[in-house]
Amino acid sequence: METAQRFVGRTAIVTGAGSGLGRAVAARIAAEGGAVACLDLAADAVQETARAVGGGARAYPADVSDPASVKAAVEGAARELGRPSVVVTCAGVGKFAHAAEMSFEDWSRIIAVNLTGTFLVVQAALPHLLDGGGSITTIASNAGLQGVPYGAAYCASKGGVVQLTRSLAAEFLARGVRANCVAPGGIKTPLQRAFELPPGGDPEHLRRLMTPLGRSKPEEVAALVAFIASDEGRYMSGAIVPFDGGLTI
Ligand code: NAP
């Protein structure tokens, strides 16, 4: 089957592009003709993505939780690759902990990367998106739509991403910028290793995170993101799309 070419002439900013979903999204957009600014904290990994993806991809090591780092990366991408019109925010971290024992550092890091980091990237890109139109696709989680035990910080951060996306969609609906959110669950990536049962945790509590459909692959999420971010998704804004094997039915 021929690959569609929905991103020819467009520049996309993809965060978390050093691994997992972000890497697959970067590869998909590049395969469809887009120039991709690959952002990630993991400098070597994101250089590797840009090399592997080829075409118009370029690495921008950046910490999404740091406003100056984000601004430098987004402005560098705009200068070198052209006006960004597509933003996909995949950078994320997670960890399970008993809510009563979670350290302030873990809470702060998860909120800073997942929620504040999503906002900072969108904020830095907005002047470019508003200058000719564009689309924002955020990545939340099933944990943004359901209660996940031992996931106080992760759930709170992802629920925040859901509402941040709705707010952006409402604010920019009439100004040519769409905002949508994909809420995946159970995708085979290195992040899943971060979600270990905390000491003394009850495995029964995690039963609700199992689905008979098993796990999905990053490429399947990337295909969905590419649809939403391209003109084929032009009538979508403010949508929260679960992609979780039915976890949140
Ligand atoms: P992943 O393979 O761990 O990729 C996440 C990437 O984000 C990593 O390269 C990571 O770098 C990077 N990152 C972490 N902190 C960052 C920061 N401050 N600034 C820039 N980049 C940073 O995880 P993934 O599964 O692809 O996750 C992508 C997104 O999907 C996340 O938002 C995650 O919450 C969400 N999600 C995943 C699943 C799933 O089942 N996999 C389910 C629901 C939601 P390091 O390796 O250096 O940390």
Please tell me about this protein's structure.
The protein is of the alpha/beta class and 249 residues long. The protein has one domain: NAD(P)-binding Rossmann-like Domain (Rossmann fold, 3-Layer(aba) Sandwich), CATH 3.40.50. The protein has helices at residues 20-31, 43-53, 67-81, 104-130, 152-172, 218-229; strands at residues 11-15, 35-40, 58-61, 84-89, 134-139, 177-184, 240-243. It has a seven-stranded parallel sheet with strand order 3-2-1-4-5-6-7, sandwiched between helices. Helix 4 (104-130) links the parallel strand 4 (84-89) and strand 5 (134-139). Helix 1 runs parallel beside helix 2 and helix 1 (20-31) packs across helix 6. The chain is globular and about 50 Å long. The relative contact order is 0.15. The model has no long low-confidence stretch (mean pLDDT 97). The structure holds NADP nicotinamide-adenine-dinucleotide phosphate. NADP nicotinamide-adenine-dinucleotide phosphate binds next to helix 1 and helix 4. NADP nicotinamide-adenine-dinucleotide phosphate (NAP) binds at residues 15-16, 18-22, 40-42, 45, 63-65, 90-94, 113-114, 117, 139, 141, 184-187, 189-192.
